[in-house]
Amino acid sequence: MNINIKTLAVTLLSSCLFFSAKAMNISELTIIDIHKKMTDKELTSEGIVNFYLKRIKQFDDNGPKLNAVVQLNPNALKRAKELDNIFRKRGKLGPLHGIPVLLKDNIDTVDGMANTAGSHALKNNYPENDAFLVQQLKSAGAIILGKTNLSEWANFRSTASSSGWSGLWGQTNNPYDTTASPCGSSSGSGVAVAANFATIAIGTETDGSVTCPSAMNGIVGIKPTLGTISRDGIIPIAHSQDTAGPMAKSVTDAVILLSSLTKFDSNDHAAIQSATNYISHLKLDGLKGKRIGVARNLTGYHAQLDLVFEQAIIDLKAQGAIIVESTNFDKSDKWGEAEFEVLLFEFKHDLNKYLADSNNQTPKSLKELIAFNLEHADKEMPFFKQEIFDMAQAKGELTSKDYLASLKLAKKLTQDDGIDALVDKYKLDLIIAPTTGPAWKTDWVNGDHYLGAASSAAAISGYPHITVPMGYVHGLPVGLSMFSGKLQEGKLIEAAYSYEQSTLHRQAPKL
Predict the structure, then answer these.
(1) φ and ψ at 130, to 5 degrees?
(2) Coil/strand/helix, residue 478
(3) Residue 211 belongs to domain spanning
(4) Does a structural domain hold residue 434?
(5) Which residues are registered as beta bridge partners of 101?
(6) For the chain, how many helices (H) and strands (E)?
(7) d(Cα 370, Cα 419) in Å, to the nearest integer?
(8) Would you state the pLDDT for residue 7?
(9) Does the active-site annotation cover 250?
(10) 40, 118, 158, 268 - which has most CB atoms within 10 Å?
(11) Is residue 54 part of a domain?
């Protein structure tokens, strides 16, 4: 966090003395808890904002130096005071009234914060409009507290990148072990929620960028069905897979946030209207009678992780789930190549459009970004290069036969021949696997050390995926992934909530 933001934080803190050292510790309170305390006149939005600002200064800037929150909203306290006045006069503005939320730094907001993707090239990219999802957050009463660090360009610049590192903001660190990776690309959002720098946060995912940092930071992450959350105002990778998603300490908070985000955006060409009442699916007996397939070919890459996963299966059975063994993906080794080809084509096309529409003094195309990085290599490429940028720049238009064939194949392998095939064949409600392994050591020399993950099938197909804390390996959190067919969030929420409430694995990191 730069000096201007630190100074701002101190100024904001000194402007209100509502929250005393003897006051309650609100760090682990849920949205429902906070609203109850507001009703009981034990807590205000202003007090909550000051609490988080103090905590960010103590643990993000200093102490363990997690470096998760990289920009603070200069209007946060003003917004909190306005919401407190509204609450006193007529009650809640919406389901997120007075709740501080952090945005990944690839989402447009007009709150005096740049949208940078972690790159020096976009450090002056101040949007003229809120992203559609930010509009929904504000309508629901949320307070945009600030923005979080990310793997630069959402981890789509180099084949040797390090999760949580960006040229503009530096390295974000895992709160359970600051020498370990926070995963990415929504690194800062995952760390900030785990470390209690805000109640909730927004991440974005193309393939694993919400679910991996959620799992490795011991929180809940939801990647919804593609198109149910607007992609407007989000710096893109690929329109056929990109989506924002909620990140929270509990399934309940994640679902409340999801409910506030899923409004149909007629300007999003892939928008889908979801009629699901997500909150109604928070059922303690949600696992009873659920047929759950075990994707065994998404396991086996870490022995101790597998032991934790086996205990999770026992716990699912204890809650009444019916376990269907070895519901494996037959062609899981074939979809990766097709996916990557699609991402390269769409990245060039989608990013060029975002940059061209920007009215700021920033590069206007991927070609100009490549030139910028070469000119500023000392700041942008001290550890890894831009091989993926170069590969994407070499691609043609979206009318290309190679692109169209790869897109068709990727969707077929993960939809008709993938998730849909398994669900139909075994009459499943959902499929499970470990989300990913425990955090590896941050390594700027060799890059990330992924051993395995469960994200790709749901990411490529555009189907929903929830990860929920499953336990710990050597003190590092690991997550349980649950995914199913298109618009099946209701079933996943029932299963995730029931599992969470029966196990209560999450333990806050000791900072």
Answers:
(1) -70, 145
(2) strand
(3) 96-511
(4) yes
(5) 144, 200
(6) 18, 13
(7) 37
(8) 40
(9) no
(10) 118
(11) no
- For 20-29, 122-131, 314-323, which range has the lowest pLDDT when averaged over its residues? 20-29
Both tokens of residue 255? 């679902």
**Tens digits of residue pLDDT in 338-367:** 999 999 999 999 999 999 998 778 999 999
Q: In this structure, are residues 366 and 386 in contact, taking their beta carbons and an 8 Å threshold?
A: no
Give the pLDDT confidence score for residue 23 in this predicted structure: 46
Q: What is the pLDDT of residue 10?
A: 37
With a cut of 80, say whether residue 15 has pLDDT above it: no
469: part of which helix (H) or strand (E)?
Answer: strand 465-473
What's the Cα-to-Cα distance from 206 to each of 176, 291, 346, 462, rounded to whole Å? 25, 28, 12, 9
Cα–Cα distance, 350 to 489 (Å, whole number):
27
User: How much is the average pLDDT of 55-64?
Assistant: 94
Annotated active-site residue in 158, 163, 187, 209: 209
Q: Which two tokens stand for residue 433?
A: 């696997």
Tokens of 124: 């002056």
Cα separations in angstroms, 49 against 28, 137, 491: 14, 16, 34
pLDDT tens figures, 335-346:
999 999 999 999
Q: 3-state DSSP call for residue 244?
A: strand
Q: Mind listing the pLDDT tens digit for each residue in 104-135? A: 999 999 999 999 999 999 999 999 999 999 99
Q: Which two tokens stand for residue 151?
A: 């793997």
CA–CA distance, 292 with 298 (Å, rounded to integer): 15
- Residue type, position 276, single letter: T
Q: What is the pLDDT of residues 269-304, one digit of tens each?
A: 999 999 999 999 999 999 999 999 999 999 999 999
Q: Report whether the peptide linkage leading into residue 185 is cis, meaning its omega lies within 30 degrees of zero.
A: yes
Q: Which amino acid is located at 363 in the chain?
A: P
pLDDT at 25 over 90: no
Mean pLDDT of the chain: 95
Residue 7 lies inside a defined structural domain of this protein: no
- On whether the CB atoms of residues 168 and 110 are closer than 8 A, the answer is no
Q: How many residues does the chain have?
A: 511
Q: At what angle do helices 45-55 and 76-90 cross, to 10 degrees?
A: 150
Instruction: Please give the span between the terminal C-alpha atoms of the chain, in angstroms, as a whole number.
Output: 18
Q: Is 185 a catalytic residue?
A: yes
Element (H, E) at 245: strand 243-248
As a three-state string, the secondary structure of 45-56 is HHHHHHHHHHHH
209 flagged as catalytic = yes
Output the domain CATH number for residue 390.
3.90.1300.10
Among candidate residues 45, 119, 151, 185, the one labeled active-site is 185
Among 104, 147, 263, 411, the active-site one is: 104
pLDDT (0 to 100) of residue 333? 83
Count of domains observed in the chain:
1
pLDDT at 24: 59
For residue 248 the two structure tokens come to 């929270």
Q: Which two tokens stand for residue 359?
A: 């009215």
Residue 83 lies in a domain: no
| β-strand partners of 95 | none
pLDDT at 93: 97
